[in-house]
Amino acid sequence: MKLNRLFQITAITAVIFGFIGCDEEFTEVGGEIINNPSNVELREIEVNAYSQVVNSIQTNNLSNSILGVNNNPVYGESAASIITQLTLSSENPEFGENVQLDSVVMTIPYFSTEIQNSVDGEILYALDSIYGNESFKLSVYETSYFLNDLDPDAGFEQSQKYYSDQQSNVEQNILGEALIVKEDFKPSSASFTSYEVNVDGVNDTIVNAPALRVHLPVDYFQNKIIAKEGSTELLNNNNFKNYLRSLLIKAESNGSGGSQILLNFAEQGRTPKISLYYKKDSDDGDETEQVRGSFALNMTGNRFNTFEGEFPEDVTQAINAQTSETGAEDLYIKAEEGSMAVIELFTDAEELEALRSEELLINEADLTFYVNESLVNGGDEPRRLYLYDLTNNTFLADYALDITYSVANPDASITNFSEVVAEDESGKYYNIRITNHVSRIINNDAENVKLGLVIVPNINSAVSRGAQGSLGGSLMSATREMPELIDQIPSVNSLTPTGTVLHGNLSNDDDKRLKLKIYYTNFN
């Protein structure tokens, strides 16, 4: 590591990062640093690290959802499906006289970026947050599975939690045949044209950014919605959500290799919905003239993701063989319902006390995770890893004090703390800088908490932020059927299917073995 880079980072982390919305007080590092000290030393400290399978994650607290099938060269095939409520865009709707339903279209926006304009003015797009480039089987079912707002087991005093392993519960409540089955659905980057009826009953032609867009059966919605005009079922949304309880948007493998894509449920002005387009008699009573109308069933109620898929037997055996007492040769990290790593610093209490007695000035402290490229089989590496306080389920001081935060470019955000995957002469690696965290443990007797390591598609989304970028709390999801220590996990971990394998603290390759590297100045 170049020393000038080290001193630059140390100086940056000494800057106060605005208002930090957290109960914990952060200690800044670098107040006593002199310009360009020449006596910086390096000390490598053994750590303990091991993998932990993530069995069941709360997914009904996410702003967006992921859909599709992913094939990972290490972790095998997994499928992500969505269970969602529908809500009436207006309660107790009046459709008009002699209504004839023309078409029904389900539309859920993708994340996309406009890339250029062609000669004829057509807007072209590139899809964001898509993993894989093949098709998958897509089905939509009505179910009688009711999504509660509040948890009846908690006396209706807490929000209901829904988990990633509940798909079988939903499928037991499927009503009838699938509304639609697409054997080879493939996300498309093409824009599409829609016709929205304006206040004068005339179709406005609108060009829209890419979206999941499929036609649903007209007869079903004619009977389920249009024919129910004036009924108690459509009187209000409470009644309606009990009448049409939920839809299962199911992804399955079709053997092609599949793809998963993050769906945009949160953008204002692009509400995911099912649009009913129809003709009706003119409102002026002229039975010989028909005008167009439309009605929307919005996907703005409760919604959660489910994940299905099993690790290959060799991966499961490798994880099960690891112990918290000794650590592991390899760390298996897989997002969604996958696996994470637990990191323990300063496992030797005597060594920690000796460090504290030296009163060292910590210039930089790094954890460098090298990819075990012999195991990942050439798969695409996740862009970012996120390290957090697993004991208290919150972010670290180094995350909070990183002034490189960028809302416009998440890939270039918080990079002093967690660098984007890089490569040197030894191979691919992730570097996570925890200077403030380590300094507080050594020099301020802060609690030596256990750390959690997960994959994130957007490191900004690990926490909530105020209008000026000030930090609120960590965005965490509950877990089930896991050790007591891991009762929560960063919510954003559920929004990407990526995975990797990292060299652990018992790696046979000493140059890539996980260690804590502390660069310090000793003025004693």
Automatic annotation (TrEMBL):
InterPro entries in UniProt: DUF4270 (IPR025366)
Record's protein name: DUF4270 domain-containing protein
Taxonomic placement: Bacteria, Pseudomonadati, Bacteroidota, Flavobacteriia, Flavobacteriales
